[in-house]
Known about the structure:
Layout: H1 18-41, E1 50-56, H2 64-77, E2 82-86, E3 97-98, H3 106-109, H4 111-116, E4 122-124, H5 128-137, E5 142-146, E6 158-164, H6 189-194, E7 198-203, H7 212-217, E8 223-230, E9 238-243, H8 248-257, E10 261-267, H9 276-288, E11 292-296, H10 297-300, E12 312-314, E13 316-320, H11 323-333
Parallel strand pairs: 1-5, 1-6, 2-4, 2-5, 6-7, 7-8, 9-10, 9-11, 11-12
Antiparallel strand pairs: 3-4, 8-13
Amino acid sequence: MKLSTPRWWYVRERPPMPVTRALLTPLSWVWAAVTARKIARARPVDPGAAVVCVGNLTMGGTGKTPVAREILRRLSEKGLAAHALSRGYGGSLGGPVQVDSLRHTAAEVGDEPLMLAKTAPAWIARDRAAGAQAAAAAGAEAIVMDDGHQNPSLTKALSLVVVDGETRNGEWPFGDGAVFPAGPMREPLKAGLARADAVVLMLPADMDAPDPALVRLFGETPVLVARLVPAEPPPVGPQLGFAGVGKPWKVERSLKAAGCELVDFAPFPDHFAYDEATLGRLEARARDFNAGLVTTEKDWVRLPPAWRDRIAAWPVRAAFENEKALDDLLARALPKSA
């Protein structure tokens, strides 16, 4: 059974659930030690193509996949053969396999690879080195790896970490700094930043500027500010929204900020597999409000095909404040043909 992301993870000052956090702290020490040992002992493989890693320091909900998709789009527009690489979390196929959005389902390859495959050739592989080598053999000059900052199996030409920039109303992207499961961190902040070439700070669409206190935490690491902006307006009229992502409450906020007439919102765990019973309850609830149903692209690809015409997908994209700074980072890391 999948559990929803605990919101208390993202409280910085005197976070709640002190007993729970205390009980989980020994497990977090084990998690951090295993991660550090794996990274220290690794012998990264050069797959024969430049690897751009778009990763996280926390357990999710930062906008990592839209950033990977935007980088794929920019590289492709510059004439570079750019392919996506993902572990295929939640999918049954081990790979390496190239994703076919007309043939594969989220249950086979995961939801994020299906999204990426709309922009560029996409591969899934639990063995990232094997997946990258398969992409290079198929002609990839650059590989954009969605997730994998803590995966040391590949030589990386550029490592970006995406950080949620929401700091209003007591939220903090790293919580009190505790490592999973006592907190949201995949590894200690200092260790993760030491391997990053730049931070992509993802601000809410309605937030004017990043929190200076947050920016100071990154020290000398370059910071690129980006926002998740609507690729198209939300559906017209009353809507019942739902999302099974890392931070579903951010989807609710974004829909409201985009002008959606949201009558209710249902959160689900990340990568939630929607079944007929769940969708039937959502549809009945929407009917009570005479409302439509709207969800994210990531959720929409996990819907049973029979439901896709009945539920609107609301697409968003990553928009960078300083596109030249991003292009300069990519140009320094990738082949001259870029």
